[in-house]
Amino acid sequence: MVKKICCIGAGYVGGPTMAVIALKCPSIEVVVADISVDRITAWNSDLLPIYEPGLEDVVKKCRGVNLFFSTDTEKHISEADIIFVSVNTPTKTCGIGAGKAADLTYWESAARMIADVAKSDKIVVEKSTVPVKTAEAIEKILTHNSKGINFQVLSNPEFLAEGTAIQDLFYPDRVLIGGRETPGGQKAIETLKEVYSNWVPEDRIITANLWSAELSKLAANAFLAQRISSVNAISALCEATGADITVVADAVGKNTSIGPEFLSASVGFGGSCFQKDILNLVYLCECHGLSEVALYWKHVVQMNDYQKDEVCRAWVVASMFNAVSDKKIAILGFAFKKDTGDTRETAAIDVCKGLLREKAEISIYDPHVTEDQIQRDLTMNKFDWDHPIHLQQMSPSPVKQVTVTWDAYEATKGAHGICILTEWDEFKQLDYKKIYDNMKKPAFLFDGRNVVDPEKLREIGFIVYSIGRPL
Ligand code: NAD
Ligand code: UGA
């Protein structure tokens, strides 16, 4: 019988996942622990550290009942039956494999803490996305430090997407649990399965060996990202030929073997995981001598970089007479997708940095991203965002050419052009006539998300560029 669960890492995965476990398993005490005092303080306040539809409701129902947020990681590890590890697994920024391999520093320090403080048998669950064979490394750390304690390592990758995390956790497509093919490993799998059985139908819980579970997570993200790079590659051809990507994607997706989801052409995929996980997969392939396989996956990331660059270079700069210096460009949407305030690897960073190199003045509006966050994103080096150590050392001086407002009309006032970079629903409802009247002419609109109806905006007077659609 599981009485207590501890989760190390109170981030986008640890927080929502544990809140839902607490809600669905009232007899289990769930503690989410983190080294970040600020994050834990926020989890214990009325202003949660992440914006996620439905999350506040779940947290309010359980917090202080059977859900707790704490910085006392050691205490809660020692008391728990199951320990989830949901810390960041960023891309390495230096040394062997820099720019590709996963940096397991945070994972290793969590494992060492578990080994040091555990006084009874534990199930240790990999919730973070990790390279295949990480469980073997973790087992070594745990068993070499233990004092006769039995540790079972399970792989239970998380498949939630931000913006829909609570729905994804309530009704998962699948829950994947990998473990050792030994009696102890199988018993541990059954124990974790019982936790999920409180709300997930039996046929949605897949059990596997450790390596299949670890690889399935990287493979799933690579397949999803590949679809976006594929549709974006076709969108470039649409722009060159006069075809319309919305029609092409609809026609292609009607084949049930392909399906309609995840075929929206865009300014490029962002988020904390796709790029990092594919690069991790590329590195794994290279380490196993599979150079052609590595190249295949690498191109999914390269296509994404191309897409982000093209929006700045071929759309904004080229169409505005190759001269955007000192021109005001409004950016609508900075988050990497709608319904989240998360900006990690958002395409908006690349587009804005490109415009700043051209000396444009940029004015940004996003309903859920703060000025402080935007300034940090625009001054940080690639991959540094996921390394708490770099963040602590940083005291950025703000980029002067950037202003951030909480109002779309203010952001666009006096602008020469507008770039829509996140598909927030509210951007469909804006009064574009009013916006047009307050802009410099000719007024350009670059829709990187196919949010607006280009014909209607052209009728107002805008010069409209939409991803993969005729000019
Ligand atoms: P995050 O950065 O939001 O959260 C990680 C947390 O771990 C941070 O708050 C950090 O302070 C904490 N931490 C790091 N080392 C620690 C330690 N030794 N002890 C205690 N706390 C520590 O990251 P995230 O988005 O929640 O992602 C976590 C993992 O889950 C990653 O491997 C990611 O690839 C994977 N994942 C993320 C998503 C997503 O949508 N964000 C979805 C599925 C899987
Ligand atoms: C993604 C996966 O969807 C999750 O299954 C996975 O668990 C998670 O990564 C993870 O491992 O972190 P997430 O990154 O939160 O989830 O969001 P997505 O909805 O996948 O969007 C990722 C990016 O792709 C966004 O920038 C989004 O705008 C873009 N996208 C998505 C497109 O450009 N077109 C699409 O059709 C779909």
Overview of this protein structure:
The structure is a single chain. With 471 residues, the protein is α/β, with parallel strands linked by helices. The chain has 18 helices and 14 strands. The strands form three sheets. Strands 3-2-1-4-5-6 form a six-stranded parallel sheet, sandwiched between helices. α5 packs parallel to α6, α11 runs antiparallel to α12 and α12 packs across α13. It is globular and about 75 Å long. InterPro entries: 6-PGluconate_DH-like_C_sf, NAD(P)-bd_dom_sf, UDP-Glc/GDP-Man, UDP-Glc/GDP-Man_DH_C, UDP-Glc/GDP-Man_DH_C_sf, UDP-Glc/GDP-Man_DH_dimer, UDP-Glc/GDP-Man_DH_N, UDPglc_DH_euk. GO terms for molecular function: NAD binding; UDP-glucose 6-dehydrogenase activity. It holds the Pfam family UDPG_MGDP_dh_N. This is UDP-glucose 6-dehydrogenase.
Write the layout of secondary structure elements.
Elements: E1 4-8, H1 14-24, E2 29-33, H2 37-43, H3 55-62, E3 67-70, H4 73-79, E4 82-85, H5 105-117, E5 122-126, H6 134-145, E6 151-155, H7 165-170, E7 175-179, H8 183-196, E8 205-209, H9 210-241, H10 245-253, H11 274-287, H12 291-319, E9 328-332, H13 347-357, E10 361-365, H14 371-379, H15 388-393, E11 402-405, H16 408-412, E12 417-420, H17 432-437, E13 444-447, H18 454-460, E14 463-466
Parallel strand pairs: 1-2, 1-4, 2-3, 4-5, 5-6, 7-8, 9-10, 9-12, 10-11, 12-13, 13-14
Helix pairs in contact: 1-3, 5-6, 9-11, 9-12, 11-12, 12-13
